Fold each of these.
Amino acid sequence: MTDVKTPPAEPEAAAQPPTKPIAWPLGLAGVVLAVVGSFLSWSYDDRILGDLSLNFYPGGLQILAIIVAVLALILLLAERGPLTRLGSWLDATLGLRVLGAGLVLYMALVLVAISTDSNGLINVNPGGYVCLVGAVLLAVSAWMLPLRQLRDMSEAKLPGWAEILAIAVLMAAVLFVAAYALGLQDAWSFVLCLIFIAVVAVALFRTGTLTWIGHVSQRHRKVLTLAAFVVAFLFPFTQNGSDANMSIANQVLIFGATAMGLNIVVGLAGLLDLGYIAFLGAGAYTAAVLSNSAFATVGWKPPFLVVMLVGSAVAATFGLIIGTPTLRVSGDYLAIVTLGFGEIFRFSMGNLDGNNGPNLTNGPNGIPGIPDLELFGFNFGDEHTVAGIDLGRFSNYYFLLLVLIGFVILVFARLNDSRIGRGWVAIREDEKAAEAMGVNVFGLKLLAFAIGAFLAGLAGTIKAHQDAAVSPDQYQFIESAFLLAAIVLGGMGTIAGVLLGATILKLLPEKLRFFSEYRLLMFGLLLVLMMRFRPEGLVASRRRQLEFHEEDEQLAVAVEEERLVVEEAK
Amino acid sequence: MTVTDAQRSPARTGQPVLEASGVTMRFGGLLAVNDVNLTVREGEIVGLIGPNGAGKTTFFNCLTGLYKPTGGQVRFAGTPRKPKRPKKRKKGQPIQVEAVPVQPLGALTPLSPKPRAVVRAGMARTFQNIRLFANMTALENVMVGRYCRTSAGALTSVLHGPKFRREEAATRARAQELLEFVGLGRSTEHLARNMPYGDQRRLEIARALATDPKLILLDEPTAGMNPQETRQASDLIFKIRDSGLSVVVIEHDMRFIFNLCDRVLCLVRGEALIEGTPTEVQSDPRVIEAYIGTGEDDDEDDVDVQDAHVQDTTIADEENRS
């Protein structure tokens, strides 16, 4: 963003609190100390947090500290120095405050981690303290720097290739950080890495960079989508044939695809469904009984493409059966009925064991030993090597799931942007008026239910083969609750938000085993806080944001201006 | 007051579009609408007046299927089997943009009391207290109105099939055209909730027009408007009528109603008091009585009706809400 084409801003507005002259040099000193400290040894013990014990050979966590310091340096130079033109666009001071405070928190936690992992603060080497002092200096200086008047981000335009390059760089950064974070073995390192990600993300948000990225992605939507999928596609190649992370990634993808399906029901049609996991189960059980497993109870063994269709059709039929009588009630009643349906499904699967009714599911034992998929002569259990990198069984499924989630996203986005999507919005806004305008309210609700169920069933058929087994206890109520939590946390009705929510909710318990006992408590707390402070979710859909803030006139005007800018850009 | 509006042309009395006979609506012990008859002919503007609580909006709700009337029948000139095909344009002939294309009327058939069936049959309405989709843009609001005249399903929407693309483009163009028709061509991308009050009223009319109605029911289209906006509203209603639609208007503004309507029906306490031309209704002593109570020594001048309206509109908003 360094060569912004439009002329630089006017000098800052006249009314400014007096700047303390010491602030800027102090910040610079903080940055230098933080960098120098990161090159020195942090810990006497070389077995913890990766290896942080060597001088002039920074370990992973030290490099993260250096990255934060370098970002701070860029913002300082934007404040005063060679990058002031950049500074007229970016809210450098706010960003510096975030980076300063974040680095202090980061270093403090590093010291805590070193002292808990290796018996006391005595094991902290000088580098850690130097870095902490640098961080404190940076934070102090950032709070002394003045805030500035800024120009509108929507006017910041670069040549097209540069904007696409920015997207590519961002995506590459996402890939590297994701691979690095997943590669961390111990919990402390992972927590510290999360804090690093959060600090950088908040700093980007506060400086306005994220707003700019938002505008850029509006202008290059296709490029962004393509880049996101390329990054996702490249992810297995960063794992060196290790299946541990790929297994987690697959779980995230299945969970994400299912959450996206539920997002159609909850986020678009505005219906509360608490038994959605049953549709995933319906697909998985269908795939299981039609598979080549020795325990499969049905003699028919169709090819997998047929199984996919059958499984999702079964799930969609369940959706229609449960929807037809219940969608005439609304709100809480619907939630209770769907919750009941989810439980009925689980108990039925647990009881269809030959003792009570036909033997379809082997009861509580489920159907194990589902063989790997074979599509077009390619067996998903085989390992193979591409460009010298081993791709194992989970990587194979990963690519298939990637196609699946791409399909689900496509369905979601295109329905949202169609006559049907407009009907759903109208129903959410004012059901009576929608009906009086000729919108088929009942039909559209039922359609949302059926499509949601269809997509979940589709995901279920793949899940059955990926897990190699199905059993009733995989489809408990708590799973439905987590799906819903992913949507609420990420942002109802958005794609990026729900994927983010699904990733957070699935990834954290996997990586932070010590935390898994408290995960319900934590997520409950998180949801309460979200409802209080940001009910529209982490990534807010504009329309949802407006619905949640009906009194906020400023927001409405801002959203409208944003729309007008987008329209003009077209 | 004499009716001297230049725009007023003699009603082209066509065949009846709507025929409500003996419509009765009872809520428990309350008889809200009692045995009301109303016939609306093609190209006619009918006014519906009456003091607060007379049952005007309830009658509207019975007509549009929001309420299921406890008695009586609503018959509507249903859509003919085959819609008229657009004639092929000759070369060089300019495109005839018909803002509100009107299809020939079929025979009167009983109307099922479901809002969607009513809209599909060709009767659209606006609401007394504006019920727009507040967080959608003006264009999107009107596009929702097109919902019942389009049929692209989920599959073609996901695949972006030819039908989806054709319908989507047509819907967008038609919505834009209707917004220009009601005079909102410049605010297509504005959020409905950000629009000024008068514009919201007009947007609601555009949304109703988007359903391709033959008859449009307007519930207090000028409530809360200043004289200039009221004049614009009456121009708009004439424009709608001139494009071949029939209009039924509920209104408290007597000057507005008597200027506008070909016929006026006055409801009092749920019953039809009088139906006739504006002049007839205007000079009927019972109407004046209904509005301002039993006659003192007021001479029966329509100025009194005007005064009555002033008092009336102040509490108009508190009238029964649908």
Amino acid sequence: MNDQRLEFNRRDCVKTAGPITGAAVISVPPLIDARDAPPSRVSMNILINGKPCSFTVDPRMTLLDLLRERIGLTGTKKGCDHGQCGACTVLVNGRRINSCLSLALTNDGETITTIEGLAVGDQLHPLQTAFIECDGLQCGYCTPGQICSAAGLLREAAQERTELTDDEIREQMSGNICRCGAYPGIVEAIHKVYRQSRGSDDSAAGRG
Amino acid sequence: MFPFEYERPTQQDKVIDSLSRSHRTKILAGGTNLVDLMKNGVEQPERLVDINRLDLTGIVQLGDGRVRLGALAHNSDTANHPLIREHYPLLSQAILSGASPQLRNMATNGGNLLQRTRCYYFTDPGFPQCNKRLPGSGCGALEGFNRIHAILGSSRQCVATHPSDMCVALAALDASVRVQNSKGIRTIEFSKFHRLPGDTPSVDTNLEPDELILSIDLPPSPFASHSHYLNIRDRASYAFALVSVAAALEMDGEKIQSARIALGGVAHKPWRATEVENELVGRRAARSAFESAARLAVRDARPLNHNMFKVELVPHAIVRALSLAGGVA
Amino acid sequence: MNRVDGKLKVTGAARFTAGFKPQNGAYGVILQSTIAHGRIARMDVGKAESSDGVLAVLTHRNAPKLPGVEERISMLQNSNVEYNNQPIGVVLAESHEQAVHAASLVKVRYDFLPSKLDFQSGFVRGYPGSHIGEPGDLAFGNVEDGLRQAEVRIDQVYRTPIMHHNPMEPHATIAEWDGDRLTIHDTTQNISGHKEKLATIFGIPAENVRVVSLFLGGGFGCKGEVWSHTVIAAMAARYVRRPVKLVLDRPQMFGPVGARAQTFQHLTLGAKPDGKLMAIRHEVLAHTSYVEDYLESSAFPTRVMYACPNVSTTHRLVQLNLGTPTYARAPGVATGTYAIEVAMDELAYAIHMDPVALRQANYAEVDAHSKLPFTGKHLDACYSQGAERFGWSKRNPEPGSMREERSGLRIGWGMATETCPANSGPASALVRMQPDGRVLVPAGSMTTAVQSNARFHGHNASAGEIIEATAAIEPDESLKRKASAHSFGAVFAEVTVDPELGMVKVRRIVAVFDVGGVLNEQTARSQFIGGIVCGISLALLENTLVDARTGRFANGNLSEYHVPVNADIGEIDVSALNIPDTTFNSIGVRDIGEIGITGTAAAISNAVFHATGIRVRDLPITLDKLQAHPGSNN
């Protein structure tokens, strides 16, 4: 393996100057100082909660910021912006993802469902009703992400025909952090809707 | 983030071409690691080549019994695929124990191979010392917090670990990585895909800058009925492994015909514990055999100030994983 | 009764601060230091200023001078750097992406000064501190005499780490000026306090400041004070003459918005062989910053928890080049009850006494310090009901004696007392009854507002009339001289410990609370559970890693700073006695938001000891700490 060649290709990085205890430049040095400017805006089409939309976006804009800052769908939340908490969970083509790590323009042509798209008119989605009834929330900040994630989970379970015990619900919902500690209510709410969707009236079955 | 050019080709050749023209070009697949690092300022590509339109998502069984995992298949789809569940449950288990469901839905097989370390001193450019991020600047973890760092195969330049769970299983299963460059297609044995840090920790893999991963190929496996992925972490889920073990046994009655043991959380790449594997061949699958063999894995361990516990934990973890794989109490 | 704002929250319609977008607003991104102590020698902002979409870069060199400067937070008034991640400037741009990028282009040169980062070596410079007017040093009886009379002694050090609140909602401010009038949308728990503070800082009348905080995505104490970013956002808005929206990134929240201070707690218990406490000495060291004193008052609960005639409590502050700590859920009490309740468990083992019986043997009928009766105390019922619900009588006290045959897991059962002071302050409310029958109650604390059933008298009104009533209550100050107000509880924990791998799981928690009357069972339950989840987190997960060379947090993000995920939480059984405390106030209710965290970490630590025979005295209890003892895995 020609390590030298690889090393040459990655050589253009700026070293920090000086030891730690002296006066030194300590900030993020850009790898290159000047570049020809790439296009600052790119156009895209996207279907959001059933509505077709077109935008020109800064390529650096995430799907999360597109939803919140451009469109005003502020239900989806920014908790960490690095895929570490799940508050930004939305459904893309029915699958749950972290919208903070998805660049907006990569979703050109895709179908997005956010928390605002789950209810049908005044009729709440069963998960929304269950979260209220089972008190699966406190401050409400992580709640949209929890519910979209739960919707994604129920779809995954149906598709893979897996049995969702309570322990499985806990594991499969571990990508959504709740600092208020509403986890027991969250699990209860999802369990309730899962049982309803399976047509089982024995709510004790599946607890594990 | 620096502004970048964005293209989304539909042909593999076009991707190779873009990669060849500039090393400041990065492939964007799932984005779960790249976009994260771009936000931190660790990665600053000039051009993103979004490869999600390429036809590399299939998971198929080849004529010779191998299974080919498309580079663009999502981690979750791979883990849940009937072929994988049936023939490589170890891989399925490993993938499902990593990250979160949302991240597994986004992440791709190729991207998982290329994900970068989660060492604190690497991911945060506010730390001045990181030879991986800034060659020559030193290693912040050596005298810093190194509880989550390597005990095997490291150097004074870098003690980082590879964070992937999936890769540990692939290492155990002797996968190979099929890649394309401007000259054609070549195959890299999995054990040769990831590098040890040595003097060049800024280079994680032996993939050339102009190469595109097409697939990960799995040889036919005799291990499906006796395997287990054990993931030991600081919390129940959504955390990187402190130590993980992919253990697989090929059994002949009660005797071990062959064994595969790969370790995660201990080195710059998934670590095949070959001395342990060799020691187990011909032995009866029992705790006593596992215990005496497992110690071999850490014979050359070089722990750091905060990760001594891994030297003790690794043999226990190997014994546990083998016990679960072998159905032994 | 379901939450009145439940529908707003589950549909995403509840508007949190960062969800607002001002007309013609600019986006602000804070710049932060990367050294622990020194001065900014030079800031190269040229590339940032000329970057696309940038309106301005504000630093100490061009920030306007403010009339009401406070040293406690960074208002860009000087070049001093007192901790790593201290705000040192702000970039303003048309879009968030442009502001973030421009911020990365700013280069800073520092003149370093020596920094103090090591807590332990700072003990010699410790000085007395106080908490909300209560002295840190307080003693009664004679501890030396008590220790001499005691035949059994427990003398140990317990440590808790720096903890970051990490509410799910990052701090955010939207500031807009209209002449001399400032409107702030802010993630604050303290609307009226913010109003006063900002008025003083900007030298404008308080009536000119409007603070809006409709929904708050968690605070747990870190959103009570006015922090740097709020002032900087307001300053920036005035500078660029446009509204400014500034939202902190998660890593930016480590340092400038408070944390729970680390503690070093030296506890000495002296007791008779029958369990009667003769003396308690509780010495606490906690860190603070160089710009403000804040004391984590861990030994305060020790003054009232048990019927011990000789008690000495001291607190010492150690200044470090770190951000200032602040109130965190059950300030002082969370960390202090951890220490004393583990010490009590150690005492129980030393004299071969059941841990619950030991608590009961030292039951305080009156406040041990003031000798005043309690306003309402039914802790004995918490112990007995909790033990009953948990099945405590089946416990074999021998460590390591309870095992799960099939898996080999060790089972541990531990318990602890929970306690929290009951607070009261002036309160006012406005109630508006609409013709359609709806009642609107805007209030200062959203959690309180939605919890209560309105208790108002009937009023005959003519059709279509809107009835509005206001009420203001001052607490009865004389009550403090007549009775001691606290809430209580008993918490029981079951853990499993993997004997070879060291992983700990909290399988089950049972807790019974005496918090006076309960107004809303559902929301009370959620607060108890929330506190307990924090207690589990304190015991097993949370830790802030301060790099000793740079003073920078190594794990300043939600990937490496561990808070519980769903799979970490097992069964939690909470109940309240619901016995109104009408001595405390006329509706008989005490606060409940914090008590769940108290004692819980100790119950879990004690359970881990019961399972393994290993006593870990510094949190969090991670698997490597359980491995450190040879021969412990038998």
Amino acid sequence: MKFAVVVFPGSNCDHDAYYAVNNVLGQDAEMVWHKDTSLGNADAVILPGGFAHGDYLRTGAIARFSPIMQAVKSFAAAGGPVLGICNGFQVLLEAGLLPGAMLRNRSLHFRCEHVHVRVEHTDTLFTTSCNVGQVLRIPIAHGEGNYYAEPDVIEQLERNRQIIFRYVTASGEVTDAANPNGSAHNIAGITNEARNVVGLMPHPERACELAVGSADGRVIFESVINGVGGHFSRTVPTTVATGSVVGVLEK
Amino acid sequence: MRTRVFVTLKPSVFDPQGTTVTDALHTLGYTSVKDVRQGKYFELDIDATSTDEARRLASEAADKLLANPVIESYRVEVDAR
């Protein structure tokens, strides 16, 4: 399976993502520069963490105008798997590929630590190999991960089962103390209505080997590798309707 | 043409920076300051033939880039010639 890892000026987890996909999971990964206009023959796209364009103005605000984002939008609209990690999630929000926005962490501190997130739904392209309620121990490293959306948007996300990861305790309980940044409803990651685009603040690519403290992040990549494999169009129709994959992929 | 854009968080959005500044002012004795909201201020020097045109361009820039409509609102002022 071929992954495209988009590199913005200021991306700093692009090599981590490349290493996880290529060296740990044995897939093909290719770096794609933000000024490129094509994703080539990629089967999945990763927008990595970092500080694209220095995060000047707002996180992801300038990155969304990078030429490659047109290709990412077309790829996502065709049902292709797109994973935004940390800054990549922020870019997806600014680009309108996912709803909501990020505010400064409630504490105003940059938080860099391992947290626990609970998998809420397995019918997205990046969670098919997970179990519902599975708790993953994955690191975060961000100053602006305080997810915000208008209350009616949050309600819609809950109703459509689009909240995919929540910050929880080690035993899987949603508590305020387990919320590292003040995110609404302890949101750590969400998906779009078609469930092929996923954004999350924690870094699964930094948790793919026990040598670095946790291998819990592997399952996110394994999901898309096992579920989508060689080419996304084999499993996801290019005219995927809202919610049409629900039931097919849910365990 | 000197054009100013003020970007602020919507009233419904929690502003942890503003809250911290409020606390700091209270520590300094400015207890009459009830609340602080922190925002962004942009000065645009626009090559335009009328204030209306400058205002239109600045609003377009704010819609596209300077403000995120999910969390922020903005106000445009143009210096009268």
Amino acid sequence: METAEPISIAEVKITLSPLQLFWQRLKRRKIAMAGGVILIFLYLVALLAGFVAPYSYDRLDTDYSFHPPIWPRFQGTHLVVPRYEQGGGVFTYHIVENNSKPLHFFVHGDKYKLFGLIPAAIHLFGTNDKNYPVYLFGADQFGRDVFSRLLYGSQISLSIGIIGIVLSFTFGMIIGGISGYFSGWTDTVIMRLCELIMSIPALYLIISLRATFPPGMSSPQVYAMIVVILSFIGWASMARVIRGMTLSLREQQFVLAARALGQTHLKVIVRHILPNTFSYVIVAATLSVPYYILGEVVLSFLGVGIQEPSASWGNMLTAAQNTEYLRNYPWLLAPGAAIFITVLAFNFLGDGLRDAADTKS
Amino acid sequence: MNLLEIRNLKMDFGSGGEALRAVDGVSLTIGAGETVCLVGESGCGKTVTALSIARLVPTPPANYVSGEILLNGHDVLRMSSVDLRNIRGGVVSYVFQEPGASLNPVFRIGNQIKESLKLHRPEKATNAEVIRLLKLVGIPAPESRIKNYPFEMSGGMQQRVMIAMALASEPKLLVADEPTTALDVTIQAQILELLHDLKHRLDMAILLITHNLGIVGDMADRVAVMYAGQVVELAPAQELLRRPLHPYTKALMNAVPKLTGGANRLSAIPGNVPRIGNFPPGCRFAPRCPIAKPECSEKIPELVEVEAGRRVRCPFWK
């Protein structure tokens, strides 16, 4: 007897929203996904910096200046932290055999504020003993934990990229949208202004803008200033591109249809034209975040950005300017590695987003 | 009072010496609940006339030289921008030729219809009302359709959505600018039937722009035939189809294939539509007119009422 053929049930076709389609295409791009996962991890750690970091960013101990990295090691089944002693020259440390302390998790330590709000003192790991420090990435010249400072610094460096992008892209999109939509003399004035800003070399613009702010600002003020400066430089190129896209979008019939419904010019721009540029904007934003991170690095590296003792990747790198330091204490370059990884991750993700947004492929 | 009264509208593109007259002395009235067809070849000024009713032609480049457009007794050309926004959608709504291009590709259609409601009937901006409108325009399973994006719908469905959007604000006048040109024939018939039906149900006037004389016969109460920026004949639809008076209208009718005529070669109007800004002196149709006389090229003829309700811009119509 013949076996009955399986009845094929017509698959219910579920239509996907553009966002779902986009996500499906993105998921196939492994490198982009890797970049995304790395970034999520970095931002999570930055958010929880106070908890993950074993010490406060400004806790110093000059007994441990330029201490090399200390990594916990296994002793049996326990993780222990070895003890180092100074000897045989300045800032030369030797490991002391058979002298260690067990590593504990969720230990009580320096006070911090979780998310900047909730007071807390619990840290992910530590030794509970001042004489047995854990310096995963070594210590700097003041004996501050580079790893802890790197985490606190990431709060500044990573958020500056996002806030800067949001600020400058919002501004650039609205200005560019207005410019392209109204065209005529509005367009001419706005575009010449953009070209003016873009024609000045960014570095000089950054430094001269910095000069317009008073010296001796508090850290939050400096932070806001950097965001403002970088956004001020960044909006112009965004506005130009959006203006070009608006010029073609405003001829679309749905713009006429929206106006025929009685929609205001501004709402036509914001609600009908700009959303049609989002697939470009999201890609451009992802690829631009690194420039903002690097912008902060440059400012801080030049000594006009985030001020000590606050930590940012830029001002941590200033400590690595000295070639002798670099040769003897290479762990001071850790923030450089962090920048490298972050920038690369953003670029991988951005490339993947661009490919996924390109519906023609 | 007529719902719409266009009086001697003249509109240029550009200004000064380079101005091109796109609409030259058009007068047209539409009464409440009436269907008027605007017929003519491409580039004769149909669309700009229709868009002018809600002053949707951007100025510049357009430039209204003279004339009035009275909508409910108020001159659209002298309205403040706030009043303009209220009549757009509120009094007159538009349905355009390409339904696919008229819907914003990145938003769900439900939200787009809701936008129209928010602007003119904010108290009714609910999913229930959107569903009611979609039902009204004959979209099956509207509850699930409101979540669709425009690209997930066929052309006919998209045009129904456009009509629903236009109706959402409960306009007095629906301007349909070649609403069926981009659709295939069976869908065309459905959409026209829908418009016809809605007109009676909602008691709204329709200005239908088309170059399809078959549609005129089906839909129109009155017809205005335009040529080169001017109305050349204005008549009740059935009479015009039965007995066209202007030589241009006659030529248009001759160009329509007849069911009974056998497989003869279609007759065409010799020559081309004159280019805007390059109109011949005198009667603009004279160079292509089979009955043209020398004096036709001297003076532009007036649009004269030759019979009750029939106006013709040709002294030799007999």
